[in-house]
Amino acid sequence: MTATAAPQTVPSRTAALAGSLPESAVLAVLRAALQEDAPYGDITSQTLIPAHARATAVLNARVPGVLSGGEVFAAAMKLTDPAAVVELLVRDGEAFAAGTALARVTGNARAVLLAERVGLNLVQRMSAIATKTAEFVALVDGTGARITDTRKTTPGLRVLERYAVRCGGGANHRFSLSDAVLAKDNHLAVLTGGDPAKLTAVLLAAKAQLGHTTHFEVEVDTMEQIEPVLAAGVDTIMLDNFSPAELAAGVRLVDGRARVEASGNVSLATVADIASAGVDVISIGGLTHSVTALDLGLDIDLAAGPDADPEVEFSGAAAGRPGTDPTAG
């Protein structure tokens, strides 16, 4: 397939991403995924492929997008074959066209095939998140609004998915419940019984328990809640499910006294209007909870030629007996 011209890349983004994905977190995900996918080894490859056969494979893009997870893909290959050579041809955060070769791996053929699905699953999902995020970021360009994710992530994959949001030019909300106070509608209902007159007092009492570095955010779903919440001196006020007109009115009412976040009913069709209301942050659960994996494929490079000794005997399933660790190489 002939590659068409790729969209312009963002060098500053790719530079900022370097080293921001913890290796220990990546390896933990990969080990769990490989244990799930091949608990006793890959019986197909162990039956068909000579133990010492080698292969070169290319990670190809079937559709355009923004890459995220190149290092994760490389780590998957290195985990099953520490001697594998992985060349990343496109950097995380870079846009690519359909037909682009994204990475090339040369290593033990069994090991490449063992890591294939795990590596692909993760890089496809991460690149889908980065691509979707980049679409939202482009639509709010010039407004001053930041696109952020939420905690609506795949259990166990949050560190990867939030990194993917950064690859697409977005920003991260709080990573976990431990990182910041975010009082939402259910918290306020328990505290106030639905009486806005109690908001300021309960929020001030809560704020008094916090250290000076802890961010304090409160979600509101009516205009009447805004003044009582602001009176407590919160850092950010989240306007949830407000229309663009209501958001604009809310921004005027806040008048710089807190950061304004918009949330709820955000789509590619609505995000520009939401941003034009003057909000500072737009949080979007759909960046991570409902993306469709980007169409990437791993293809054996036949041009590289065969790299197996036809005289080598098959080793059967020796590497895959029950109890064997499939990540051991």
Overall description:
The chain is an alpha/beta fold. The protein has two domains: 11-137 and 291-308 and 316-320, Alpha-Beta Complex (Aldehyde Oxidoreductase, domain 3); 141-289, Aldolase class I (TIM Barrel). 37% of the residues lie in helices and 16% in strands. It has twelve helices and twelve strands. The strands form three sheets. A six-stranded parallel beta sheet has the order 6-11-10-9-8-7. Helix 5 packs across helix 6. The two termini are 33 Å apart. 41% of the residues are buried. The model is unreliable at 1-9 and 308-324 (pLDDT under 50).
Coarse morphology: elongated
Query: H/E order of the elements?
Result: HHHEEHEEEHEHEHHEHEHEHEHE
Helix content: 25-40%
CATH architecture of the largest domain: Alpha-Beta Complex
What structural class is derived from the secondary structure elements? alpha/beta
Radius of gyration: 24 Å
Biggest sheet descriptor: 6 strands, parallel
The beta-strand count equals 12
Proportion of strand residues? 15-25%
Mean pLDDT: 90
CATH superfamily of the largest domain: Quinolinate phosphoribosyl transferase, N-terminal domain
- The poorly predicted ranges are 1-9, 308-324
- The order of strands across the largest sheet is 6-11-10-9-8-7
Distance between the termini: 33 Å
Q: List the domain count as a whole number.
A: 2
